[in-house]
Specification:
This protein has 200 residues and is mainly alpha-helical. The chain has one domain: Up-down Bundle (Rhomboid-like fold). It has a two-stranded antiparallel sheet. Strand 1 and strand 2 form a beta hairpin. The termini are far apart.
Length: 200
């Protein structure tokens, strides 16, 4: 209950994303309604899928990986930057991180994209501005959050080049950029704080 009281926005996003993703695993018709289809979106239709595509995932591994990252970083981030700020950043990053994907694949009728990758990346990189050396456990190994973030982007870059899984790997980079810029706007001293922590 403390999570719902202290971080209501992150709690609702987490619960809703997990429930919607699991529901889609058992009803594949949801994918057709919720997935981002750049060809269609580029023609001004189904614009809502900028948001809904972030509520579904390709499989259990995709969901667990994204929600693992979300749990570690989203809840403390909401406490730092505030409730409406966190919610606005999450929604903006879902949309802005997918725009390059729509532009890249606007003529590819066969291409679809799904997952909260862009927003998760925004959360991760926003949080790093406040605690770059904070430790998280990855398969039982303690790892600084900034190291995890670099590995996260490298993995995303590799998968964007090689994977054929409809997961929005391209959105990771643009989501990270959105998260950093948004945070610097709403918390002007975040950059100086980050540089101080990074070199201390």
């Amino acid at each position: 209950m403390d999570y719902i009281h202290d971080t209501p926005v992150a709690s609702v996003i987490f619960i809703f994303t997990v429930i919607t993703s699991i529901y889609a695993f058992n009803d594949h018709g949801i994918y057709g309604k919720f997935m981002l289809h750049p060809y269609t979106v580029s023609k001004g239709r189904k614009l809502y899928t900028y948001i809904t595509s972030g509520l579904i995932h390709a499989d259990w591994m995709h969901l667990i990986f994204n929600m693992f990252t979300f749990v570690f970083f989203a809840f403390p981030l909401e406490r730092i930057i505030g409730h409406w700020q966190f919610g606005l950043m999450y929604m903006l990053s879902l949309i802005l991180s997918d725009i390059p994907t729509v532009i890249k694949h606007k003529d590819h009728f066969w291409y679809n994209s799904l997952g909260a990758s862009g927003a998760i990346s925004a959360v991760l990189f926003s949080y790093i501005l406040f605690d770059p050396w904070g430790k998280i456990l990855v398969m039982g190994i303690p790892m600084p959050s900034i190291v995890f973030a670099v590995l996260y982007l490298l993995y995303s870059w590799y998968m964007a080049k090689n994977a054929k899984d409809n997961i929005g790997h391209d959105a990771h980079f643009y989501g990270a950029l959105t998260g950093v810029i948004f945070t610097l706007v709403v918390v002007p001293d975040a950059l100086s704080n980050f540089l101080r922590l990074l070199t201390s």
